[in-house]
């Protein structure tokens, strides 16, 4: 029998693989004439339809209370809208490899605050795993020879900060009471509305997408949104936010594999060493079978009347 910790680890790793396809689909969609806001509008709209149909088919209860809605609103605005918008924006200024490297400041932030808020232990093994993963991800992005754009660097770093907040919010005990599909349903729905409002008020809605752009967006919505978010949330319930953030460093490897098998990139010694370091860090985290003791996140930020809901 597979233990819950192992199941959670597998789910987070699969989520990282699917998330790793995100730059590929995004860049392909940009080439078809989409901007960041329209891409995200279509992405979350399609994902919302997918999760809605799934919930109807499985007869999943999507009802939530006021406290849960408040937390999901934070997730949608800070974690989903701002994270994806700033990360996708960085792709327009710097390479996806460099953007991914800078975005991965979030495991550091997550681990520190997971220790403060959830009392998750910051062990030597976890510190070593974090160090190895950062070196590995850095190696994947070095050597491109392209000029570094300060604007792209800033957006990528900001996206990492927002994603750390997203992970910490996802670990809130209040959200663990409801189905991960219900969580995804509300996050995708709120995010779609937010991006629709942004595009509508700027008079910038793409109403004539091409067949190829729809193909890329549907794949982005299914693999890198619907499946990846649900798997990450389900897995994090068993691994904890700190471990989940470290396991998700497998994400850049997907980009490397896509480059090798799709774009015929050469796997050099540097990339091989980077893969070895990241896989080592992942295996180190997988050995950590202690489940963290959670406490309420952002309880001071939650209105008192919502706490009693």
UniProtKB/TrEMBL annotation:
One of its GO terms (cellular component) is plasma membrane. The chain crosses the membrane at residues 9-27, 39-57, 69-91, 97-118, 130-148, 154-171, 183-205, 211-234, 246-263, 269-286. Keywords: Cell membrane, Membrane, Transmembrane, Transmembrane helix. InterPro entries: AA-Vitamin_Transporters (IPR050638), EamA_dom (IPR000620), EmrE-like (IPR037185). It is a multi-pass membrane protein. Pfam families: EamA (PF00892). SUPFAM superfamilies: Multidrug resistance efflux transporter EmrE. It is found in: Cell membrane. Residues 7-141, 151-286 form the EamA domain. This is EamA domain-containing protein.
């Amino acid at each position: 029998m597979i233990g819950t910790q192992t199941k959670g680890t597998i789910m987070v790793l699969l989520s990282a693989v699917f998330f790793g396809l995100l730059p590929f689909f995004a860049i392909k969609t940009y080439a078809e004439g989409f901007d960041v806001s329209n891409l995200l509008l279509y992405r979350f709209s399609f994902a919302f339809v997918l999760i809605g149909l799934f919930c109807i088919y499985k007869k999943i209860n999507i009802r939530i209370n006021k406290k849960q809605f408040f937390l999901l609103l934070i997730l949608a605005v800070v974690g989903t809208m701002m994270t994806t918008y700033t990360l996708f924006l960085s792709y327009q200024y710097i390479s996806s490899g460099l953007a991914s490297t800078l975005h991965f400041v979030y495991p550091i932030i997550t681990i520190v605050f997971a220790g403060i808020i959830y009392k998750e232990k910051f062990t030597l093994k976890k510190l070593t795993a974090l160090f190895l993963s950062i070196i590995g991800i850095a190696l994947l992005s070095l050597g491109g020879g392209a000029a570094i754009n300060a604007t792209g660097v800033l957006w990528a770093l900001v996206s990492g900060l927002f994603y750390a907040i997203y992970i910490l919010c996802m670990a809130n005990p209040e959200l663990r009471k409801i189905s991960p599909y219900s969580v995804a349903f509300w996050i995708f729905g709120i995010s779609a509305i937010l991006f629709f409002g942004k595009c509508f008020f700027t008079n910038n809605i793409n109403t004539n997408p091409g067949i190829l752009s729809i193909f890329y967006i549907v794949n982005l919505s299914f693999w890198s949104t619907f499946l990846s978010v649900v798997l990450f949330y389900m897995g994090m319930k068993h691994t904890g936010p700190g471990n989940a953030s470290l396991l998700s460093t497998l994400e850049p490897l997907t980009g490397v594999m896509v480059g090798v098998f799709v774009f015929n990139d050469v796997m050099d010694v540097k990339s091989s060493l980077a893969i070895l370091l990241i896989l080592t860090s992942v295996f180190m985290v997988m050995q950590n079978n202690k489940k963290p003791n959670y406490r309420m996140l952002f309880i001071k930020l939650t209105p008192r009347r919502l706490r009693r809901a």
